[in-house]
Write a structure and sequence with these properties.
24 strands, 12-stranded mixed sheet, 2 domains, single chain, alpha+beta
Length: 402
């Protein structure tokens, strides 16, 4: 009797098991996530009956990014400090891209990683054209973007309906955003239109991943500071050609060799020595990025080769913000020159005050390199050794030593 009951129960359960099995989602395969190069043309022709074009990154900027942009008006302008009327140059612009018509595409390989926090809701892509880098920043409202679009991943973006613009002179793919933060530092100068972040769902919809991530295909330009400044102007030439050269150098993936941290920071256009105060209270502390009291501007610490200097730019919200500079400790920065090596990262030229161009107030501190991490936190982009050949081991500020 008991055996027949068991048999009956099994027979009843079989349709349920079959039903549950049939509802189980199919596991993702590589082709579901990554598009192969050979199938791109067929896919793009199918979704663009009016045709399409894949632009190189510099060609994209030349075609769609104008000096003034097309989004501002007399009643709704860009921020006040954006415009250099003497040279007719704009630091903040937005140019909207056509929504309809033929497809507008760009492609490039992701060079950034947001794990360490220096590229929050932002990424940079790289394209190699005739052996040289072309790069573009992308502003996207996507937390942990590096988890989906990993470093070394090549992506293809349909740009129709988006915008291209400049934030503090740095070109980027974006959407228009109006800032009316009355609590910002110098708020009256900062109200107005500027590039904003692309909504995450929109970005994911218009972006395809080509192949799988391959960090070995990234190109790093390894240079001394002397070599770098032989290729780019230390101080901007305030005309169309000079600014174009600067804008197209932005986002470049570089390795700056033969340098050390001087223990200085950029204090509004002059260099000053870092102090040993608590980084929660002093924005001048001898760590990578102490507090800005939530103002949020990038903190700059100086690297040098003994003759030339370059800013190392970091966010106060990065995971290594309160780590001492190589050679620095609770006693100060006197040991910093004894730790020498290289700093790798994204090259940038940040200028949000156009009057500095008009008045000739530049001192060459607009250029910076932004590392993607330090040893043990993200990409190990800061590599230093002392005279004994010992590698720098990062050490975090300890309040107990303060």
């Amino acid at each position: 009797m008991r055996k027949s009951i068991y048999t009956y129960a099994i027979l009843l359960a079989m349709p349920v098991v079959a039903m549950l099995t049939s509802c189980e989602p199919r596991g993702l395969k590589e082709d579901d996530v990554f598009v192969q190069e050979g199938s791109l043309d067929e896919i793009l022709k199918a979704e663009n009956p009016e045709g399409y074009k894949i632009y190189s990154l510099n060609e994209f900027l030349d075609t769609y990014m104008t000096e003034k942009g097309n989004f501002a008006s007399d009643t709704c302008p860009y921020r006040d400090r954006s415009y250099d009327s003497k040279h007719d140059l704009y630091m903040f612009t937005v140019d909207t891209l056509p929504t309809k018509g033929s497809g507008i595409y760009i492609r490039g390989r992701v060079t950034t990683d947001d794990y360490a926090g220096n590229f929050y809701k932002a990424m940079v892509i790289q394209q190699i054209v005739n052996g040289e880098q072309q790069n573009l920043r992308i502003s996207v409202d996507l937390g942990s973007a590096g988890g989906m679009y990993q470093i070394g991943q090549e992506i293809l973006i349909r740009c129709n309906g988006l915008a291209v613009g400049r934030y503090a002179n740095q070109p980027q793919l974006c959407v228009p955003s109006y800032n009316n933060n009355i609590y910002a530092m110098n708020a009256s100068q900062k109200v107005g239109w500027a590039p904003g972040r692309i909504e995450s769902s929109v970005f994911q919809r218009v972006t395809r991943m080509i192949g799988t991530p391959d960090v070995n295909k990234l190109q790093y330009d390894t240079l001394t500071l002397s070599q770098l400044y032989a290729e780019i102007p230390l101080v901007a030439v305030p005309d169309a050609a000079g600014m174009d050269k600067i804008r197209k150098a932005d986002g470049r993936l570089v390795v700056i060799k033969g340098v050390w941290f001087t223990g200085e920071f950029d204090n509004n256009g002059t260099l000053a020595k870092c102090d040993t105060l608590h980084p929660d209270s002093s924005s001048n502390a001898n760590v990578f990025a102490p507090t800005t009291n939530n103002v949020g501007y990038p903190q700059s610490r100086v690297i040098s080769d003994g003759t030339n200097k370059l800013m190392c730019s970091n966010s106060e919200y990065s995971k290594f913000a309160y780590y001492y500079l190589p050679g620095a400790d609770r006693h100060g920065v006197t040991e910093c020159p004894n730790w020498r090596g290289s700093v790798t990262g994204i090259l940038g030229w940040y200028e949000d005050k156009a009057s500095d161009l008009a008045d000739g107030k530049q001192k060459g501190y607009e250029w910076s390199v932004t590392p993607r991490g330090i040893p043990g936190i993200g990409v190990a982009d800061v590599n230093m050794k002392n005279d004994l050949g010992e590698s720098w081991v990062p050490k975090e500020f300890d309040p107990k030593d303060y």
